[in-house]
Amino acid sequence: MSNLMDYTKLESVVKKHLKPSRFEHSKGVAKVCSELSTRFLLDKEAGLYTGIFHDYARYYSDSEILKACRKGGVDISKEEEEKPMLLHGAAAALVMRDIVGDVPDSYLIAIRNHTLGSINMGLLGACLYVADYTEPNRKHLDDKDRKEILSLPTLEEMVLNILEREKKYYKEKGMTFAKRTIELYNFLLGGGLFNS
């Protein structure tokens, strides 16, 4: 993948764009995602690149996100239209495509789907989803829970475990999953497997 921007340069670009705490989170996600990518026989570089870039558009305004996604031809759900921040991954994927180089589709799909998840996010997307939830800078998990998730034998089991935790949290807060997240939850409950 010699057409891709050098990782060190990419990290520098992201660092200039994000608040320090968000950059530290992104570095943590990149580390965990690359470890998961290696563990599940994917390209370690894929984990690094998607992890460091996944929140690139996190500080875009709602109007900037919607404008970028419409211009980029992103399929926008009703829920995303109502809460454009749910599309920050889609906007980040569009930016990555423009500035990083010849990015594999799997990178873009993973970044696009890291917020709500998707039955079509693939193995790399599952690695990113799990890494975003479990990276060590996240305060909603203690080390025991983090290890419990990361010790599960498959990405499907890890994502399902996270969704079970999120479902409980949402219920306590009187919230519900987005349609795409419900679809993912049911897919995994039914034994669905992510594509490679």
Automatic annotation (TrEMBL):
Domain of life of the source: Bacteria
Q: Recorded E.C. number(s)?
A: 3.6.1.41
Q: Name the catalysed reactions.
A: P(1),P(4)-bis(5'-adenosyl) tetraphosphate + H2O = 2 ADP + 2 H(+)
Q: Which UniProt keywords apply?
A: Hydrolase, Iron, Metal-binding, Nucleotide-binding
A Pfam family per the record: HD
Q: Where is the HD/PDEase domain?
A: 18-146
Database matches in Gene3D superfamilies: Hypothetical protein af1432
- What are the protein's GO molecular function terms? bis(5'-nucleosyl)-tetraphosphatase (symmetrical) activity; metal ion binding; nucleotide binding
InterPro entries xref list: Diverse_Catalytic_Enzymes, HD/PDEase_dom, HD_domain, YqeK
Output the NCBIfam families linked to this UniProt entry. Answer: bis(5'-nucleosyl)-tetraphosphatase (symmetrical) YqeK
Name this polypeptide is given: bis(5'-nucleosyl)-tetraphosphatase (symmetrical)
* Organism name: Bullifex porci
